Amino acid sequence: MKICNQKKYIAGLSGGTDSIFMLSKLVAKVKPNKIIACHVNYNYRSDSSIDQKICEEFCKKNNIKLEILNVTQNYKELRQNFESWARKIRYDFFVENLNKYEFDKILIAHNMNDDIETFIMQKQKQTIVQYWGIEKKTFYKDAMIYRPIIEYKRSQILEYLNENEIVYANDSTNLDLKYTRNKIRDSLDENNFEKISEEKKVLNQKLKRTINTVLKLVENIKDKQLDLKSLRHDQLYDQILIFKFLETNGFGNLFYGRKKATIKEIIKELYSNKSFIKIEINNLILLKDRNILKIIDKSDLCIINKPIVELSKEEIDYFNCKEEISKYNKTNIWVTNDWERTFKFLKVNNKPLNKVLTKQKKSYFSRWFDLVIYNESDKNILNINI
Ligand SMILES: Nc1ncnc2c1ncn2[C@@H]1O[C@H](COP(=O)(O)OP(=O)(O)OP(=O)(O)O)[C@@H](O)[C@H]1O
């Protein structure tokens, strides 16, 4: 276990095998005053107090300061997934202590089995990943999370604890096979770990290279638009590119944990001959506008079709059209930028407006920003510069 004895550590201590093992190894290398253990008692299981007691006794014996967060929550009323809710509570608690004591790193006791299980799960679930398995070092709210026992197998950990007669808690949820992870856990043979780790390593190297290339490209993207010539007909590259493009423009959360299929379908559409494609996911509009892919936040768009006299001050400012509309103030004069709905029946010199614009290869995106002024009775447009 690589650990620097000069640094100060906040250690996540659940009382289970892994974190007790991590701390046992840690106290052998680092002075106790450089370690603070943090335990979260969720009061979720009937035996939660046993875990807390094990942590208290371990820390007392090893002269380590222990911070405990006692969670009071009515679990019948919890409306979200327990695991992700619980994870946020404990990571926030770790960060709070890291800042309070001005320590350097947070240590979490994931082991090699967790890493391999995560890898197998990622492959089965076919989600977009940025790393295969569990990374040794990550960040949470600017705090460094380090996993010093990621190279230890569960069997090695148990052997060490039993040999040294160290007391640990049994996590009763581990025995419950209804969870996917536990099903995978049961089917894994540690003898295959070297081979799986090698496969994981190769995939991660490839993924890292791709992410780095994509990031260089995405860094230079302006106006939330991607030139579709940047796609490479390489599945991994294209998927990462679209994902990073969405992520850097604030829409990554829509795709975290989502099946890769969603991004794959988007890419398939982008390669089609269609010059216009509009994909909507919650507040996101992805617009293929000929050779450009544009990200639009629906809440940034103002789409109208109404009599000119009903334009609000905000709308006049948004379209910067004060001067233009002052020329028209009759009641049968309407304004619109709702090109998807109105341009098929509006006419310019008796031709449908959308056909004229398509012929001119007018960008679909820009149509939302040019206000069309038209006569409601004959549907002819009046601002002929369009
Ligand atoms: N109740 C707890 N109190 C303090 N630390 C905990 C607690 N539960 C988990 N941890 C820390 O997190 C590590 C991983 O725990 P576990 O495998 O249960 O979580 P996970 O959901 O797989 O991963 P994650 O840490 O990302 O939530 C533990 O070994 C321990 O270091």
Automatic annotation (TrEMBL):
Instruction: Give the first-level EC class, as a single word.
Output: ligase
Kindly state one GO CC term assigned in the UniProt record: cytoplasm
Location comes to: Cytoplasm
EC number annotated for this UniProt entry: 6.3.4.19
| Gene Ontology biological process | tRNA modification
Q: Which UniProt keywords apply?
A: ATP-binding, Coiled coil, Cytoplasm, Ligase, Nucleotide-binding, tRNA processing
Q: Which residues form a coiled coil?
A: 61-88, 193-224
Residues that bind ATP: 14-19
Pfam families for this protein: ATP_bind_3
SUPFAM superfamilies documented for this protein: Adenine nucleotide alpha hydrolases-like
Tell whether Protein transport is among the UniProt keywords: no
Reactions catalysed, as given in the entry:
cytidine(34) in tRNA(Ile2) + L-lysine + ATP = lysidine(34) in tRNA(Ile2) + AMP + diphosphate + H(+)
Just give the chief location class.
cytoplasm
Boundaries of every tRNA(Ile)-lysidine/2-thiocytidine synthase N-terminal domain copy: 9-186
Q: Which GO terms describe its molecular function?
A: ATP binding; tRNA(Ile)-lysidine synthase activity
Q: What does this protein do?
A: Ligates lysine onto the cytidine present at position 34 of the AUA codon-specific tRNA(Ile) that contains the anticodon CAU, in an ATP-dependent manner. Cytidine is converted to lysidine, thus changing the amino acid specificity of the tRNA from methionine to isoleucine.
State the family named in the UniProt similarity comment for this chain. Belongs to the tRNA(Ile)-lysidine synthase family.
About its domains, the entry says: The N-terminal region contains the highly conserved SGGXDS motif, predicted to be a P-loop motif involved in ATP binding.
Q: Which HAMAP family match?
A: tRNA_Ile_lys_synt (MF_01161)
Name the UniProt record assigns to this protein: tRNA(Ile)-lysidine synthase
Organism, per UniProt? Spiroplasma culicicola AES-1
The gene for this chain is tilS
